[in-house]
Description:
By secondary structure, the protein is mainly α. It is built from nine helices and three strands, in the order αααβααβαβααα. The chain has helices at 2-11, 13-18, 30-34, 49-52, 57-64, 75-84, 97-109, 111-121, 131-142; strands spanning 40-42, 69-71, 87-89. It has a three-stranded parallel β-sheet with strand order 1-2-3, sandwiched between helices. α6 links the parallel β2 (69-71) and β3. The protein is elongated, with a radius of gyration of 18 Å. The termini are far apart.
Amino acid sequence: EDCKEELYSKYGSLLDEQIYFTGMVPQQMTPHYIRECSASLVLYKNTSPNNYYCEPNRMFQSIMNDCPVVVGCNPPMKDLVEQYKFGTVLPDDGSQIDSIYEALKVVLENNKSLKDKISKNKNCISWEQQMPVFHDIMRKLFC
């Protein structure tokens, strides 16, 4: 709330035109909000191997709901976003505000084409695409 008040004192009513503050939202409601977003920021500081090599659910949830993403340079996120053109990748882990600003500009300027690429390619990362892998594992274990 302190930060919010500071933002209001700096930007006034412009803040309400650009940002919608929800407060805490039940997890099952997040897809409804994501579908209305122009972009989703998914950032993990490179402070541990778990963060650096993560594949965050929030990134996948955003992509599956047709929302372009801005991700940090974490290898699994970076590789996936670059391979399928789901958004843009920062040169860092999100520590530099200027790089986030530039990445958001790119995503907003290319929003329609990014959403088209997501629609065409999101099936490549769905759970259903993993069924042959699960089938092979089960066959090797039990047959």
